[in-house]
Amino acid sequence: MGMFFFYNNRKPRKFNYTPILYDPDKEERKEQMEKRIRRIKEEVAKEEGRTIETPQEVGKTDFGEEFLSQTKFLKRRKEKEKDGNKPIFASNITIVLLIVALLIIFYFVFLR
Q1: Three-class DSSP category at 71
Q2: In terms of Cα–Cα distance, which of 71, 102, 76 is closest to 88?
């Protein structure tokens, strides 16, 4: 078993990651090409008299709804809330309050 000493503590190694396949020039060329393509698409759309969708609008999804649809527990919980039932935590609170009330009654009846 090792002993802990305050003097001679080793410091953690620094994070020194150098990406192997990263080429900043290639990334810059790719961004410029995407800008050119977007600009050309906008010009063509203007000539045809239609609007073009931006990339943010095309791939936009509601992550919360997607997540709920993938989990059984949360899906059931949301269905119960839609049906008008009380939320789950409300029933837990009532159980805790009943236990506290029983403990208080037990204290006054048997310990006094």
Answers
A1: coil
A2: 76
